[in-house]
Specification:
eight-stranded mixed β-sheet, 16 strands, three-stranded antiparallel β-sheet, alpha+beta
Length: about 500
Amino acid sequence: MYWRKKKNKSGVVSIQVIDKSSGKYKVVKTIGSSAVEAEIIKLTQEAREFIDSYGGQQRLDFILGDDQRYFESIYENIQQVQLLGPEIILGKLFDEIGFNAIKDELFRHLVIARLIYPVSKLKTIDYLQKYKGITLHVNDIYRYMDQLHAHQMEQVQQINFNHTIRILGGKLTVVFYDVTTLYFEAPDEDDLRKTGFSKDGKHNEPQIVLGLLVSENGYPLDYAIFEGDKFEGHTMLPVIEAFKEKYKMQRIIVVADAGLMSNKNVTALLAQHYDFIIGARIKNESRHVQQQILALRLEDDESTEIKKDELLRIIVHYSESRAHKDAYNRNKGMERLKKLLNTGKLTKKHINNKGYNKYLRLEGEVSIVIDEEKFKDDSKWDGLKGYLTNTNLSKETVMDYYRQLWHIEKTFRITKTDLKVRPIYHYKRRRIEAHICIAFAACKLYKELERQLKLKKSGLSAEKALDILKTIFGLTIKLPQSKEKRLMLLDKTDEQKKLMALFL
């Protein structure tokens, strides 16, 4: 914008304000006309002032208008909005583990989705469509699960094993075994899905038994599924034998909870020359061994060992905090029994050794009473914990290995809670096995995320990192002039930037 002098035929000079921003000359305002030089100078000064005033407003209008046009242009040229955080980081870990050797992209999507949005396969389709722009039919997933079961499950397990051995420095010394149960929504039973003792309290629902082997620090090694009514104690040896044969393992130490051990299992482990550490049922030992244990006078956090026979020894540890917990739980159980006794709901069928029912006894023909003497006598075991082993390891190492069983408990918790592997909606065995395989791979990916976060000293838990990843989106924009497509990553918060910087 500028001002100009325009001579008229009459000899009068007009002072005009001109705008050429549109490419054409436009008279914005005629300030005035005069033939007197002094008057013309005054008019030109007014023109300058008008331009300064009007031009400032115009510049503001232009800026605001330009911003509006800019944002409208961006919006009109957005091609796609995607959730990118999971693929950027979990996809990177997925490749580092080696799962990218499974060439079907659907395996990748299903494994990562199980971590980010663990739902049914039908809802997974919605998730992939809304957040990844991937259009699938449920039959596409079912067909792939059949292919996974037929051709890729062993490869998934081998990739997992190879990576675990690699991060352990090439050596596997000890394996930890435990079982859990996974229930189904469908009420019908078959050869695999059967009702049994449910760790989820779903005793009326058909289920399967899942056996899991992990290494130190809880890295998954292998798994197997069994019929829902299978006694958990009968699952361990088949899983360990299959694992040892599959991966050509030599001597390994097996660690398991006392609940999985019977005299038959111990005998079998000894016969097959396994080294093992298991929780000892010290209250069920021979009278001679019990007397030795109760004769101990251990201080807080002290331990000792007792020779059970030529091959086995029992490590006994005492803890004051454990003693307080044992006493608390026993008293709580007694209170519960007394309440049930007062309601008259206890019958002869409750006279057994399950839990605190062991304190019940029959008196006369029909009366059920609480055996107070047995209750008091049990207090002598408070704080004592036993570990049965045939190894030559120090008692400290034996206890340390056994205490690592919490890792497998956490892995089960991850599988059930974070990955929501239950309930299972499939009913065909091959689909059930494929579903467990996908959850197993997702569990491996979770543990690798957890391992690397700890290695990088991030201070983040895997759960928190996953929550952050769910907030990192990206925009695909088509540039209006060149028509080139650009991807813009929306990682603007400090926690998003810090997490991305750890892995990229």
